[in-house]
Amino acid sequence: MTVLMKSDHLRIVRQLKRRALLVHLCGVLLVVGLFFYPYFMKVENDLIREAYGVVKLRIGEMDAKIRILEVLRAKTLTIRQGLDIADTVLSQRDIPVSMVLAIMDVESSFDSNAISPKGARGLLQAMPLTSRIYAGEFSKNIHDPVINIRTCVRYLVDLKRIYGEDWAKILRTYNGGPPNVNNKALDGYVRMVLARAKAYEVKVGQN
């Protein structure tokens, strides 16, 4: 017959209690884990989807940039100008890329140094008043592709707020000023820009 000393008995009891507590904690953690598992899986899946969306967006932007550069390669532009144009056009979301390229084509044939008889300047032919309003202190550099595009896109955004998606009115105003918003004599210009916008939409994959 084995006799346990009181001290040994207490030690064994403490060990059993610790083991019981450990088993209990493991059980609690397992239950909590099973309870929160769907939530953790949802968070992980959401993170994966978000990461995939970011990667997909970046790939789409790179593809669009390459397509624009392919279009600009045939123009009389330096590599730096081509990159600046592509980056600046793609950095805005308010005016369709194809529309910006079409206006640029019709207005200046992608010549950043172009000056019209009326004083319009640069790629998108910014008038002096437009330059002062939308470019401010940078208006003196209106021939710079980045400044010119940003200036004229801001003007186009304001016109779009006024006329909505009525591109005929937007383009008449852009080309002839607000007094010519309903001037049908400018519809040749409107048709030309819209036709080239449609062509650029196909080429660059951006509406």
How would the blueprint of this fold be written?
Layout lengths: L5 H67 L6 H12 L6 H12 L19 H8 L9 H19 L3 H10 L10 H18 L3
Helix pairs in contact: 1-2, 2-5, 3-7, 4-5, 5-6, 6-7
Give a verbal description of the structure.
With 207 residues, the protein is mostly helical. It has a domain at 61-204: Lysozyme (Orthogonal Bundle). The protein is 71% helix and 0% strand. α1 (6-72) packs across α2 (79-90), α4 packs across α5 and α6 (167-176) packs across α7 (187-204). It is elongated, with a radius of gyration of 33 Å.
Quick recap of the structure?
This protein is an all-alpha fold and 207 residues long.
Relevant terms:
207 residues; mainly alpha; elongated; 0% strand; Lysozyme
CATH architecture of the domain at 61-204: Orthogonal Bundle
Number of strands: 0
Figure out the total of helices.
Answer: 7
Main β-sheet, in a few words?
none
State which percent range the strand residues make up: under 5%
Report Rg: 33 Å
Would you tell me the structural class of the helices and strands?
mainly alpha
Q: Spans with pLDDT under 50 lasting ≥5 residues? A: none
Q: CATH topology of the domain at 61-204, which one?
A: Lysozyme
